[in-house]
Amino acid sequence: MLAYFNGEILAAEQIAISMDDRGFLFGDALYEVVHVYRGQLFAWDLHMQRLGQGLAELRYPDVRLEGLKAAAVALLREVEDEEVLVYIQISRGVQPRSHLFPGPSTPPTVLVWARPLVPLDAQVVAQGVSTVTAVDDRWAKVWIKTVGLLPNVMAKQAANDQGAFDAILVRDGMVTESTSANVFIVEAGVLRTAPVTNYILPGITRHIVLELAGELGMKVNLRPFSVAEMMNADEVFLTGTTTEVLAVREVDGHAIRRVGATSQKLLQALHRRANQI
Ligand SMILES: Cc1ncc(COP(=O)(O)O)c(C=O)c1O
Fold first, then answer.
1. d(CA 13, ligand 1 centre) in Å
2. Do residues 245 and 111 share a domain?
3. What is the pLDDT of residues 44-98, one digit of tens each?
4. Domain check: are 112 and 127 in the same one?
5. 183 in helix, strand or coil?
6. Is the CB of 166 under 6 A from ligand 1?
7. pTM above 0.85, yes or no
8. 200 Cα: distance to centroid of ligand 1 (angstroms)
9. In whole angstroms, what is the distance from residue 75 CA to residue 84 CA?
10. Is 145 a residue of the active site?
């Protein structure tokens, strides 16, 4: 397997991350995951826009994002699968351990890889997934897509340990998102999802699904919802780059009234959009 590392395409085995890399020491790194449909990078510009906002917020030195696309395209020549994920990670670079930022001459560490996406079983997608709720105890800047995902990892593992697919995170009684996807409900034909605040990741798929909903004439309500409102909803579904649009059939053992009617329409619309590019 090949990967892009600091300007070069290398065999994965040749890549060695320094013991002083700030991504390793402090989680001082940002990442993006891009879905590739039939060789085409889907929603690339939106991913780069979000990455750019994160880099600016964390006061990274200028990172030339244009080179990332060329790197991704070069790596995609090696992966022929229909669906692929491109992963991009940028850390603040390498310096002997110190909380303070390194000087401006320290280059960031840039890593890109492309791997085949292993799709969920079609039957799982059709039946919907089971979920559990978990306390959202992440920091207050989760809108920045940092690699500091330990709370997400703990919640996902706890869900898995309970036989569930994912954990839906709850802050002060209100649903924020899941461990790696945004959460939507459908109430009397109206889509509802949490508004963009610092407490959710502004998902690219969420953004596109909201556009598609508009195109399909669906009404949208951007208001936070409680766990009780989610349990009483007609449908619940997740959106994400790898998750796409995925129906939830159960939350904490409670069966959701309906599975798939709206989410399937949106998934098909997403696939139409992805295959047009
Ligand atoms: C916590 C969290 N929320 C939402 C999402 C969905 O975002 P996107 O649609 O950009 O993949 C992700 C994706 O990784 C995520 O990690």
1. 28
2. no
3. 999 999 999 999 999 998 888 889 999 999 999 999 898 999 999 999 999 999 9
4. no
5. strand
6. no
7. yes
8. 9
9. 11
10. yes
Both structure tokens of 18: 């320094």
Which of 141, 143, 201 should be mutated for ligand 1, with most atoms under 8 A from CB?
201
Nearest CA to ligand 1 atom 13: 180
Q: Which residue in the list 145, 156, 219, 265 is annotated as catalytic?
A: 145
Does ligand 1 have an atom closer than 6 angstroms to the CB of 89?
A: no
User: Domain ends where: 69, 93, 116?
Assistant: 116
**If 0-12 CB within 10 Å is exposed, 13-18 middle and 19+ buried, where does residue 232 land?**
middle
Range of the domain at 87: 2-116
Write the pLDDT tens digit of every residue in 215-263: 999 999 999 999 999 999 999 999 999 999 999 999 999 999 999 999 9
Determine whether the shortest distance from the Cβ of 185 to ligand 1 is under 6 A: no
